[in-house]
Write a structure and sequence with these properties.
Blueprint lengths: L11 E4 L7 H7 L5 E4 L5 H11 L3 E5 L8 H13 L4 E6 L1 H14 L3 E5 L10 E6 L2 E6 L7 E4 L9 H19 L6 H23 L4 H20 L4 H13 L3 H15 L5 H10 L8 H12 L14 H11 L10 H13 L5
Parallel strand pairs: 1-8, 2-3, 2-4, 4-5, 5-8
Antiparallel strand pairs: 6-7
Protein name: Maleylacetate reductase
Family: Belongs to the iron-containing alcohol dehydrogenase family.
Pfam family, one: ADH_Fe_C
């Protein structure tokens, strides 16, 4: 066995149907008294419900979270938290809202309690991201790791089938890349394989019946594991490309991840063959070269758009994305090859199967 280092992130997880009812208790456990509740504009009503749930501990609802955390939005949120005298934030939603909470924590040190309503996984990571001048910058800082995460599967029941599918495949991307991360280790690889299995099993059932409680629980369980993977090890080419697609072209985060994942995995099929065999096994296959096609077919089954063009990727996008990615590449088991990456992005833009 190869030598490895494993560092677990110190967060508390409360998982289960009805777990949201423990929110006030968890705020008190942190020693906090005024929680600013963060949501997107679309989830303001849920934020107001949660504000009522925690009563006098609420500092109100701030419903301004948007995709990719633009710098100016983060700065406004920090000012609002200070104005309201908040001593913690409750981030209710997906990656956009939790990302906004992290931006506040990075600036002010306020602790975060996360209440995910999607499968994004950001709640389990010390990774933050800010977008300025069409470029998304990311980093790691222990201050932004949510202190407590409350997973209540009931909060995902109203997530539409198409968004559930893309969000779940976004989570799967974290697990797939964790298998061949530069700092991969046996503990995280076990979690990654189990995450892929759970998501692949649950997501078709969620799409068939968004109110299937058992499927929702399994999908959220898989997303939790994927979030641990994302927070514990580095990512590779897939995440680099998707950060560029979001930061530079403002493509929807989850859809971009879902569409790109089959292509990114296929790019690494030879350089990370032994690792991707574990992903193949979790998806019902055997060999590394099956992973990309299996994920592509799963996307098709889930009704996910297969083409980046369908979510706004322009004709000049492949060349520009390949250039940006190759100028500041992440670690990847196969070197960043500009021509091959541009060709891969052209296939993804057109909705073609990985090749």
């Amino acid at each position: 066995m190869k030598s490895f280092t494993y560092q677990g992130n110190p967060s508390r997880v409360v998982f289960g149907t009805g777990a949201l009812q423990k929110l006030a208790e968890e705020i008190e456990r942190l020693g906090a008294e005024r929680a600013l509740i963060l949501t997107t504009p679309e989830q303001r009503d849920l934020g107001e419900e949660i504000s009522q749930l925690i009563g006098q501990r609420s500092a109100g609802v701030y419903a301004e979270a948007v995709m990719h955390v633009p710098l100016e939005v983060a700065q406004a949120a920090c000012a609002e938290a200070a104005k309201r005298g908040a001593d913690c934030c409750v981030a209710v939603g997906g990656g956009s809202t939790i990302g906004l909470g992290k931006a506040i924590a990075l600036d002010s040190g306020l602790p975060i309690l996360a209440v995910p309503t999607t499968y994004a996984g950001s709640e389990m990571t010390p990774i933050w991201g800010l977008t300025e001048n069409r470029l998304k910058k990311t980093g790691r800082d222990s201050r932004v790791l949510p202190r407590t995460v409350i997973y209540d599967p009931r909060l995902t029941h109203t997530l539409p089938a198409e968004i559930s599918a893309c969000s779940g495949m976004n989570a799967m991307a974290h697990a797939v890349e964790a298998l061949y991360a530069q700092d991969a280790n046996p503990v995280i690889s076990l979690m990654a394989e189990e995450s892929i299995r759970a998501l692949a099993n649950a997501l078709p059932a969620v799409v068939a019946d968004p109110h299937d409680a058992s499927a929702r629980e399994e999908a959220l369980y898989g997303a939790w594991l994927a979030g641990i993977c994302l927070g514990a090890v580095g990512m590779a080419i897939h995440h680099k490309l998707c950060h560029t697609l979001g930061g530079t072209f403002n493509l929807p985060h989850a859809q971009a991840h879902a569409i790109m994942l089959p292509h990114s995995a296929h790019y690494n099929r030879e350089a990370a063959a032994s690792q991707l065999r574990r992903a193949a096994r979790a998806l019902g296959g055997v060999e590394a070269e099956e992973v990309g096609p299996l994920i592509y077919e799963l996307n098709r089954k889930l009704g996910i758009p297969l083409a980046l063009e369908a979510v706004g990727f322009p004709v000049e996008g492949p060349a520009e994305t390949a250039r940006i990615a190759c100028e500041s590449p992440y670690y990847n088991p196969r070197p960043f090859e500009r021509a091959a990456i541009e060709q891969m992005l052209q296939r993804a833009r057109s909705g073609m199967a990985p090749a």
